[in-house]
Hints:
The protein is α/β, with parallel strands linked by helices. The chain folds into four domains: 45-98, Single Sheet (N-terminal domain of TfIIb), CATH 2.20.25.90; 109-169 and 387-506 and 518-540, Rossmann fold; 183-373, Dimethylsulfoxide Reductase, domain 2 (3-Layer(aba) Sandwich), CATH 3.40.228; 623-753, Barwin-like endoglucanases. The chain contains 25 helices and 30 strands. The strands form eight sheets. A seven-stranded mixed beta sheet has the order 7-6-20-19-18-8-9, sandwiched between helices. It has a six-stranded mixed beta sheet with strand order 26-28-27-30-25-29, with no helix packed on it. A five-stranded parallel beta sheet has the order 12-11-10-14-15. Helix 5 (156-169) runs parallel beside helix 21 (521-531), helix 6 crosses helix 16 and helix 10 (265-278) crosses helix 14. The two termini are 42 Å apart. The relative contact order is 0.15.
Amino acid sequence: MTAEPRAAADRRTFIPLDPSLAPPGTRAFRDAGGIPADQWHADQNGETLVPTHCCFCGVQCGMYLRVDRGGKVFGVEPRNHDINRMRLCPKGINAYQQVNHPDRLTAPLMRRSRDEEFREVSWEEALDFTVAEVKRIQQTYGNDAFGLLGGASLFSEKTYLVGKFARVALKSRHVDYNGRLCMVSAAGANKLAFGIDRAGNPFSDILLTDCLLIAGSNVGECFPVMTQYVWGARDRGASLIVIDPRETAIARTADIHVALKPGTDSAFFTSVLNVVIAEGLTDENFLAAHATGWEEVKAKAAEYPPSRAAKICGVPAEQIVQVARTFARAPKAMAWHARGIEHHSQGVENCLSVISLCAATGHIGKPGAGYGTLTGQGNGQGGREHGQKSDLLPGGRSITNPEHRRQICEIWGIEESELPPAGTSMMEMVWQMQRREIRGLIGICNNPFVSLPNYRVVKEGYDATEFHAQFDFFLSETAANAHVVFPVTTWAEDEGVMANAEARVVKHNKAQDPPPGVRTDTWVMCELARRLGAGDKFDFPDSRSVFEELRTASAGTVNDYYGITYERLEETGGIAWPCPSTDHPGTPRLFEDGKTYHPDGKIHLQVVEWHPPMDPYDDEHPMSLTTGRTVAHFLSGNQTRRLGALVEQTPRPWAEVHPSHGFRNGEPVRVVTRRGSEVFPALVTEAIRPDTVFIPYHWPVPTAANALTIDALDPRSKIPEYKVCACRIEHADRIDEVPAPPVAPGHVAYPETQVSRTDPLPPTAPQGRGTSERS
């Protein structure tokens, strides 16, 4: 590889600096002759760089996939996209390795009974068997006896097809997706308050704020590249407030870290609002012009003085006052939150309480002032917009609205009577499988055996099905329990769009052809639909053709994609919806005119009443178990637990406990809940509340955090209460072993990635505090 400078005349072409945003010293560096990195270029014979985006979290960092002369992906380079500015996290750097991984599924797997071993079969045999089972079950028990579960890591084109396939080909009401485990509490709150389900501000607005509040989000590990925006705001002097039971890496740098007790978020934020009101820090003009329900919310806030909330939340009353003053007095303030306040039986209320705080202080709809949610999956935002959610149709339409139903039936070419009613949520579908109300299931891009709570119930539900098929490119724990497994493409072997956490639609490009024997999810759904008699409604040769129908289906809705085209996305690097026409620039910031998407244009504030978590504390279970992610792994770990550097960095889960419990680092600690018990190595650190235990959830049984969590749901969003359940901890003799990921018949777990699983110690604490150093 050679590197040569461009012409001297080009070298001195400076990119103009905005002095309000430029870090200190940047202009001096430029004036001294510093050369921007992009003034140099490198060439390698035979290599192609394909611009695309990361497959993992909702930040959607831009990257180049490196493709060799043979058309195979062999590496990655960061891309100077304005989302990530050349930065990638450990997952992004290693993501390319899954494309040509030896664990890839390259032929359909099939068995007629779970008592049999899988065997590789032809596509014809796998498709025929699947269609025969669908018909048998539906003819015997009715159309709704068969269900479909999709995923929020799929391209939006595929999520659109999931919803259409369930309702038009399967003719079943039972369709939902694993985004139900992600940010549906925020979605429910956003719809209630604003009439629209998306973040109100782009990431870049963080750089303009004077106070940034982050609630329930371990940004440094779950969204590492997003920390650039946090540091940019801090460089300008912005205050940082972090609400989290753990002193995460981002919390350790905060001006105020509120280590509240899990499950008490709405009590805390309502009390913060109490102080804002009592000290005359509300923006009464903004509320009078732009909000309804304020008097009712104000009356409820009066019931939560800091003295009461301090007892509920386990934090000093003075800290509640400090947060209120810091946030309300800031000229511009922003609040962002994630699963930490959403994974609760009161998740919607938690989010509504944050919205009330932002509205009461007038921090809505301005550069540097607003409210947003950080999505966990790559298409966590886009994955719920176009129909795979049980109660929604494309464009965010309600499936219970007669006019919305009529519009979609006209586009799909079916009678309104043929469109099923709303279905149930993902966890509720598992309960229905347990009761044998749902007897057949197709799963696409999900792994409930690791990601759903209360594993015993999940296993019983799936075992009760008479037929189960799964789409995946690796054999997940859930797929290993199926009757048929369809081998499908990775993100690098197809093209399509995703919408990131700021609702910016970005385009992923195909970098290589799939291995022989592998098909796209689109092809499989369309082929199944053809064999089920609905082929005329699924004549889609590629993603582009699906996207054109999606654009039409979204036109005129709140989630309007009509003005977004593949060509515009390539040209611009991304467009925020709504975008109603091809000459519309998109809408990166909502509510700038002071209007929401409710018919009256107002923010509809909602009264919130705190209630305790669903799993009660007692003498046997006096502590709180909470769960979350770690920087090296992603969700159920089906991808990252196969990538050597990530497994080596974090080979196993651990139980994070406070030193006051008397454990030494690495000692076996048994965590016991009402669902069961498991033994983990202790990670002893002062960076967690003494009454709380933390376990990362990326691993399967017998080291699965979600074998211990409770399957209680928020009554409105139906999200599980992952972030708090009652537990106790005990000394144990032996740490439970981490199993290797499942592989296809005739394969063994890729040994280079598995050797470190036997390490009995937890990783070094990412917080860098306490007694967690390896000895």
